[in-house]
Specification:
Number of helices: 15
Shape: globular
Low-confidence stretches: none
CATH architecture of the largest domain: 2-Layer Sandwich
Radius of gyration: 21 Å
Strand order of the largest sheet: 14-13-10-11-12-15-22-20
Number of domains: 3
Mean pLDDT: 92
CATH class of the largest domain: Alpha Beta
């Protein structure tokens, strides 16, 4: 059923809120921003058609405050709520309450979030859909501490059942360290996601992190938009993403795309989302998880497919039919660097402060998604992401050259950032040749100390 809504409340902040506002404006939709009292000068507040303060700085009192967000939507006459990424984007209870309160949720159904948001359930569904999963098992009792390492093999990965972003995860290479790793993972998972449920999975070494962008409509049509390579990461936090992957052939893209589409169909998926895989040098791939939201790194897919994924997400929420077919060939090559307010020389310690000088690069094939400006105060309460610097070239070689040029033009002063890290890392020979895995950045950092 079509629903031509006119006002969207954005239950988020930062660059993704700005990105959604721009998409709404191009679709003729009014945008409503919510903000905490330390975010009153944020760009998303300035750009929106209307804004509402929903609480103090800590996220639990503002951007995670469901009653405050729903009240803001009601008093401003919103038709729909867009959760962005992070915060409440993958909270099935929030999605359920949004719809019960009479608003359209710009995202998947609560049941799809519940199914794919819990990694244990997602693994089961992927297996039923015929997809490959990493050998793993639930942790049931102390006996498993002795039996599972032998059955699954070492090393092991302890993972939180809920949430993502690298939280509640521990790599265990010695069985004597397993009990402590589980305890730490449970504590971190409870603090981040409100659940301390964890499970064990065989840790696949020398693997790449490759994800497939998918989208589905209310009529059951699901398509994929090819892959993104997110192997450049530290402690499971992505630093650089690109599309297409230098390790994926057309035949492999078809197989991975098919597995991702089948997973989405298994939960009647009706919006944009991402299915993540681990890819081994042999060409074998295994299901990792599904993110039931727009991804931080969606711009690299937009650049090589010429599809605005945020506008597509809004159109699908309106009930529109999918107007595209699968995209398996790309227009050039795109690379994204996440520029964070972190000091990479001090173990990537998050930073806060005021942007005293800002010069944003431009020119052919350069895109910057950001919410910062000269004079902006970076608060201490939230994710450290300042901007996403995205470039596109005719091929990977040109994209790398363009990224080096864009990074050399980028100036952010007033606090430490990861710009220097990116400048150094993209000069690395193995990265330039596309010969890395998810552990490569950590090894590279050790080598330059």
């Amino acid at each position: 059923m079509m629903s031509n809504f006119k006002r969207v409340l954005i239950a988020n902040r930062g660059e993704i809120a700005v990105r959604i506002i721009r998409a709404c404006r191009e679709l003729g939709i009014e945008s409503i921003a919510v903000y905490s009292d330390v975010d009153s000068d944020s760009m998303h507040v300035r750009l929106s058609d209307e804004s509402v303060c929903i609480g103090p700085g800590p996220a639990r009192d503002s951007y995670l405050n469901i009653p405050a967000i729903l009240s803001a939507a009601k008093i401003t006459g919103a038709d729909a709520i867009h959760p962005g990424y992070g915060f409440l984007a993958e909270n099935e209870r929030f999605a359920e309450l949004v719809e019960k309160s009479g608003f359209i949720f710009v995202g998947p159904s609560a049941s799809a979030i519940a199914s794919m948001g819990n990694k244990i359930e997602a693994r089961r569904l992927m297996q039923e859909a015929g997809g490959p999963v990493v050998p793993g098992a639930l942790l049931n009792g102390e006996a498993d501490l002795l039996n599972l390492p032998e059955r699954l093999g070492m090393p092991l990965l302890v993972k939180a059942a809920a949430g993502g972003g690298g939280k509640g995860m521990r790599i265990v290479k010695d069985t004597n360290e397993l009990e402590q790793a589980i305890s730490k993972a449970r504590t971190e998972a409870l603090a981040a996601f409100g659940s301390n449920e964890v499970y064990l999975e065989r840790y696949l070494e020398n693997a790449r992190h490759v994800e497939i962008q998918i989208a589905g409509d209310v009529n059951g049509k699901v398509i994929h938009f090819g892959e993104r390579d997110c192997s450049s990461q530290r402690r499971h936090q992505k630093l650089i993403e690109e599309s297409p992957s230098p390790a994926v052939s057309l035949e492999l893209r078809k197989r991975m795309g098919s597995a991702a589409v089948n997973a989405a169909k298994a939960v009647n998926y009706t919006t944009v989302g991402t299915v993540e895989f681990l890819l081994l040098p042999s060409g074998e791939f295994f299901f990792l998880e599904m993110n039931t939201r727009i991804q931080v790194e969606h711009p690299v897919t937009e650049m090589v497919t010429n599809v605005d994924l945020v506008k597509l997400q809004i159109r699908l929420a309106r009930g529109e039919e999918m107007f595209l077919d699968s995209i398996e060939n790309f227009d050039g090559h795109a690379i994204e660097c996440r520029i964070n307010a972190e000091d990479y020389r001090r173990n990537f310690c998050p930073q806060a402060g005021t942007i005293s000088t800002l010069h944003i690069p431009g020119g052919p094939g350069v895109r910057v998604d950001t919410h910062i400006y000269q004079g902006y105060r970076v608060p201490t309460h939230y994710d450290s992401l300042l901007m996403k610097l995205i470039v596109k070239g005719a091929d990977r070689k040109e994209a790398l050259i363009r990224m080096k040029r864009a990074l050399s033009e980028l100036t952010i002063e007033g606090l430490p950032t990861t710009v220097d890290f990116h400048k150094r890392f993209i000069e690395d020979k193995n990265f330039a040749e596309g010969k890395i895995d998810t552990g490569y950045v950590e090894r590279w950092l050790e080598s330059i100390r």
